[in-house]
Hints:
Distance between the termini: 25 Å
Order of helices and strands: HHHHHHHHHHHHHHHHHH
Number of strands: 0
Structural class: mainly alpha
Radius of gyration: 22 Å
Number of helices: 18
Shape: globular
Oligomer: single chain
Helix content: over 70%
Amino acid sequence: MNQFVFTSRERMTFFIMMGVGALSLAWAFFVGDDFHARFWSNYLHNAVFFTGIAAMGLFFIGVTITAWGGWSTLFKRIWEAYSMFLIVGVGLMLVVALGLWIGYHKLYHWNDAASVADDVILQGKASFLNKGWYTFGTLGIIAAWYFFATKIRSISKAEDANGDRSFSHHHRLRVWAAATLPLIGFTMVPVVWQWVMSIDAHWYSTMFAWYAGSSWFVSMICLTILIIIYLKSRGYYSQINEEHLHDLGKFLFAFSIFWTYLWFSQYMLIWYANVGEETVYFRHRLDNYKVLFYANLAINFVLPFLILMRNDTKRKYGTLVFTSCVVFFGHWLDYFLMIKPGVLHTTHELAGHGGHGEAHGAHEAAGHAAGHAAEHGHEAAAHVAEAAHHASEFVSGYTLPGFLEIGAMIGFLGLFLYVTFSSLTKASLVPENDPYIAESVHHHA
């Protein structure tokens, strides 16, 4: 079975998932919070998360081809299918950009003219943090990713139709694959800064883009493991064996550790330097989002480390499915923790009222302290710590994910899988004329 058939049952399942997501987003829109912030933050969270997974699928195609890696050739069409979601990602992120121009949302503090006029830090970042850069940077960069994705996929499909297991098509693939690596590696940085880091507009970290990118990558590996095991259960990919899954398990294990290395390096350097405008980010999350803060490390590092450290667990389907599901959800939580606290703080400050009582006052005080951190250094950091100490009130959809957040994630996952499975039908599952197919079939770790 080399031609994937997208069954009506699968289509219906994904449509139901998308329906759950649409209902959850609609419900969040009518919750009645300031500026519909819960709706917009849920939308941004999932749009960024799944667009990033698609980009990492393209990136890993580039890595394996450039490295002359043949082990993954059997299932490289899955990553090609992921990359086709990038065109959907363009549309998703342009909705956020349109909201900046029309004033539909207040996700980003730097888009409020009155705030910028009174804030020297936001004024200093205005040449980069503006709606023009956000819109055209997003459009140009994701469009470039999608162009490279379609080019690589078209050559790969042409190899199926015309290839003779020579390297004529593969030489062209290598050129495009090699160019894909710096394209995504460098352009990922400004879009992650724009989409996510600029939510906390006073804060910055030079390591943030690599940290966020590693979270995308681990999520992509988790989803790959789950889809391969599902397709094998349907009778596809009979040539994929435990050695291929063992290698994917090693990537999941290794990059979970790499993600933790980046998390620790970023946290440790900011803690050690103790500069006010840097420490406010972690101080706020450690004081007011303790469950998420520690769960992030437990789910995304401790659990995969302990489970996948043994060699045999990376060959067991049940263990891989369990670990992949939990870690995938864990990195979705990671993006939740990146986005939600900053959105709540901005919403409270721009709303100009104490909708959440003492918590709001503490958030506002923390924001003012961070805004003057460049001038007052450690005094500002102390102010932030004191203000954040009182901000402990539970806020639905922000302190922890609620049913609406989980529902939105299910909807976006259904959309991602629908695009992926639709793309799988448009080419053979196994690229039989790829010159490395024999190496992949006989792969042994």
